[in-house]
Amino acid sequence: AQNLAKVDGMLPRRVKRKRMRTDEGGAELGWEEYFDYHFPNDEDSNVGNLKILEMAAKWKQAQAQEDSSSSEEEDSDDE
After folding, report:
1. 29 near 18, Cβ under 8 Å?
2. pLDDT, tens digit, for every residue of 10-44?
3. DSSP annotation of 33
4. What ranges make up the beta strands (E) of the chain?
5. Whether the predicted model's global pTM rises above the 0.90 cut
6. d(C-alpha 50, C-alpha 43), whole Å
7. Angle at alpha carbon of residue 9, lines to 8 and 13, rounded to 5°
8. In whole angstroms, what is the distance from residue 54 CA to residue 49 CA?
């Protein structure tokens, strides 16, 4: 029973997704539904990609704060 639960946890998860279909000319043909399979072991490898995205978002916020603080300093100099 314990082995069965372990194997069941390794089975892929079936996910229904949509994507826009286009022809050779670039005209939209409509949405296509398809099934994607996510394996639990593969999801662990995507953690690194998510970390990069998180770091990029933090960097963007820091840049926005620097821009706003520098513009506030310029505004105070004008007065």
Report:
1. no
2. 889 899 999 999 999 989 999 999 999 988 877 56
3. E
4. 13-22, 28-38
5. no
6. 11
7. 90
8. 9
